[in-house]
Amino acid sequence: MGTTQLESVPEPKYWHLKTVLSEALDSEFSVGEILPNERDLAARFGVARATLRQALEQLELEGRLQRRRGVGTTVAPPRVGVAVGTEQHVWPGAGSDSWQPVDCEQAVPPAAVASVLESGADEPVHTVRRSRMSHGQRVATELLYVPAASVPDLTAIDAPSGPARARAVLRELQHLTLEGQDRAVELGSARADDAKDLDRLPGAPVLVVTTRFFAEGRTAALSVATYRADTCRLTFGDSPDVEIHHNPDRQAS
């Protein structure tokens, strides 16, 4: 990429530089590639390092770049589509589910979860922990709460703990007839445990997707999934793989 003169541009220098860098990421760099250091980039574009940092920080917020300790600034993989408007209703773990089981335990859920599940305040439920990966990086973590009544034939003998236990709970859920589901999305801040799992600092922006699954006239399971806001985007309808240009001045394809 050649040097671009920025002196006569009326918009903030860092904003124009962000646009130039974004176009370069599309045309000259591949996912995971490490960018030149700040000194070299600043000299190449004829800007102060403070201006360059502003542009890089904005691109990081938009999910185009990732700053990794001990590695540097790398080109981020495409955002993961989080389907919130799809008409397809399926149980977690069914079909082409991209989540990976991590663990499962029986524990008393938070009061708000117990209220949704209509379980007793001190009644343990199966708590399945799952994670979602993209390009070798964890981009989301999920807690799936399943009352014992939803998986009555589950036995501790077959799968006492760990990922095997989680898979067993998911298999048992498939025996119920899914009557529907609803989903809510909100912007939140990463709690300490989620931040550690997602390699973010506590308080980093996240998307929290809460899904209720209905069977036999009740809430049979509740999913609370936390997505890295810098690596995910919401999709509506049944085409989550639509490509969108990151540059807001260009049209979507």
TrEMBL record:
Pfam families cross-referenced by the UniProt entry: GntR (PF00392), UTRA (PF07702)
Superkingdom per UniProt: Bacteria
Domain HTH gntR-type: 11-78
Entries under SMART domains matching the protein: HTH_GNTR, UTRA
SUPFAM superfamilies: Chorismate lyase-like, Winged helix' DNA-binding domain
Record keywords, A-Z: DNA-binding, Transcription, Transcription regulation
InterPro entries linked: Bact_HTH_transcr_reg, Chorismate_lyase_/UTRA_dom_sf, Tscrpt_reg_HTH_GntR, UTRA, WH-like_DNA-bd_sf, WH_DNA-bd_sf
Membrane-crossing residue ranges in chain numbering: none
Protein name: GntR family transcriptional regulator
